[in-house]
């Protein structure tokens, strides 16, 4: 039996029972095609296959590489690239159903030139990022149809609302955003209204499919926002230094899980039973509640799951201390 003590650290662990509970809870809330899981959160086809096995056949991707990897893994039944690209040539050649978001004549041209046949019109619903103005969406859909593309509908991502503390306010503003998206949809047509994420999955009742991704693995930022899924992802580290001899409570201890092993844009990670002080490149300095010794293992909970996954080549599904398998984080890179 391989245990976590056999792993070289830092090592990414996923608690499979917590993962499967998250997948089951979400599938109960949003069964089958009501959820189009976003793979950017985990970048791991082995994990996407688990989502497909419980009924979610369509997936959301953020990069061309993610679409390619999903197609190569046989998970290409219905892939949405929910992002703008100016070079779609790697998409048109795939053995998969690929739908591409467009928000301009340039991205529409890229879809045509790349051999992509189906698109969604990406609508700006309030997040200052991608998406065409709602009033212009019908015009772009007409242009796309004139160019021979199938327009499957609209998408609009209310990403600025995901972590609003006040849940009632999060719901009210989600409605405002989705009214903009539905107004655009009336002009665009098509069957799909795609949007939402882990922060609004239970609030956004206007879309036909929710693009949530982080729910599967979770992080401390979404837990702080009151999202009820379990923290399945940790980074296993080793205590490499303490400030006091064994047996005395140290002032602080240091583990080998630095910011090169963690997505830090949502703040410091958490270490259960300890106060985290700070991270540097290869170090995590923390004050443990109970004494720790050099060589002890710690499990560090990331504040942001997506960039954490993108830093690691592999993730180990575990049950307790037992390492069950090794999954490649095979959708990394560009
Ligand atoms: N849809 C799009 C276009 C996104 O960019 C994201 C995340 O940033 C999501 C959906 C939802 O992701 P999550 O469930 O991780 O919040
Ligand atoms: Mn994220």
Automatic annotation (TrEMBL):
Residues 232-319 form the D-serine dehydratase-like domain. This is Alanine racemase. SMART domains: D-ser_dehydrat. PANTHER family: D-SERINE DEHYDRATASE, ZGC:162816-RELATED. InterPro entries: Ala_racemase_N, D-amino_acid_metab_enzyme, D-ser_dehydrat-like_dom. It comes from the Bacteria.
